[in-house]
């Protein structure tokens, strides 16, 4: 499987589509109860009216989520190949994106983080470009607006504002205009929302939007560790990828080194952002899939011993299927 996806053969598109369906067999065989899907946060619904999706049957919900994941995988694959983050262009990023998006049952249904991954992939592309531009002000402004749009869909997306400055530290020399451009872009969207709230005499509710930002980071979490045993193969691959990246670090292009550092920070921020959502669900961690899939793809792109990396990927897929069915 891995060796097949190391090429850009058009046949791999059919294989990827079949693989995406295969990774969702468990939820198709055992359809869940009727599912509700909130496309926007409550504070955005006053401004934008979206049809209620409770009318979707579980099957339609799952099929839509599958199609969205497949499209995202192709977009993600194109961006990673365009920026040359792997040894050579391939369909490995798409393969690992679909794999990462199938880890848990909650990843397989429509959810706000799944929609936000379109924006996250777009942001990744823009961050990877800022080191190649002479003036990054407009790019940072655009990223700020994209983060604001993501925040309307799923509030924890706001924590990605930290990436504005972390990326500038990695890629650019200090320019105060670039440092504030992203925040101005973010505030532009919320300025119009504030005006709308004011016109409707609900400005006090607008202030309530920001309260989750002062939530205390939880000191203890109730976790059923049996639900997360599927992460063991992922952890092994990440360790191997990190060792491989460390070995090749100073032989890589400077832009590639900075890209992986940026993706590492994005991965960490996506994880810790859950604290802004007291009732967060497992599907929150779909936000970790794009940056995480790059590291997984990096390992399989550079691994030498075919019997080992093919076996490791087979163990990963079998583990996911086992825990999805069980």
TrEMBL record:
Entry keyword annotation includes Transmembrane helix: yes
Superkingdom, taxonomy of origin: Bacteria
UniProt keywords (A-Z) are: Membrane, Transmembrane, Transmembrane helix
* InterPro entries per record: DUF6427
Where do transmembrane segments lie in this chain? 12-31, 56-75, 95-123, 143-167, 179-199, 228-246, 258-276, 282-300, 307-325
The protein depicted here goes by the name DUF6427 family protein
Organism listed in the record: Pedobacter albus
């Amino acid at each position: 499987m891995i060796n097949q996806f190391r090429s850009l053969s058009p046949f791999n598109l059919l294989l990827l589509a079949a693989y995406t369906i295969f990774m969702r067999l468990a939820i198709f065989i055992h359809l869940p109860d009727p599912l509700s899907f909130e496309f926007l946060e409550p504070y955005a619904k006053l401004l934008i009216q979206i049809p209620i999706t409770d009318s979707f049957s579980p099957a339609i919900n799952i099929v839509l989520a599958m199609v969205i994941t497949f499209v995202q995988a192709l977009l993600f694959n194109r961006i990673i190949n365009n920026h040359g983050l792997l040894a050579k262009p391939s369909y490995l990023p798409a393969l690992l994106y679909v794999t990462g998006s199938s880890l848990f049952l909650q990843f397989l249904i429509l959810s706000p983080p799944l929609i936000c991954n379109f924006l996250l992939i777009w942001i990744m592309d823009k961050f990877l470009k800022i080191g190649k531009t002479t003036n990054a002000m407009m790019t940072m402004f655009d990223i700020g607006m994209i983060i604001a749009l993501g925040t309307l869909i799923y509030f924890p997306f706001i924590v990605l504002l930290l990436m504005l400055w972390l990326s500038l530290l990695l890629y650019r020399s200090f320019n105060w205009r670039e440092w504030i451009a992203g925040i101005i872009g973010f505030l532009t969207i919320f300025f119009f929302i504030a005006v709308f709230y004011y016109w409707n005499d609900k400005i006090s509710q607008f202030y309530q939007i920001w309260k989750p930002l002062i939530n205390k980071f939880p000191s203890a979490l109730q976790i059923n560790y049996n639900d997360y045993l599927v992460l063991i193969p992922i952890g092994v691959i990440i360790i191997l990828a990190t060792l491989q990246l460390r070995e090749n670090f100073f032989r890589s292009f400077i832009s590639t080194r900075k890209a992986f550092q940026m993706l590492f920070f994005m991965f960490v921020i996506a994880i810790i952002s859950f604290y802004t959502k007291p009732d967060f669900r497992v599907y929150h961690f779909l936000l970790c899939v794009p940056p995480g899939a790059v590291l997984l793809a990096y390992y399989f792109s550079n691994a030498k011993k075919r019997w080992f990396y093919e076996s490791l990927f087979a163990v990963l897929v079998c583990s996911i299927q086992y825990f999805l069915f069980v």
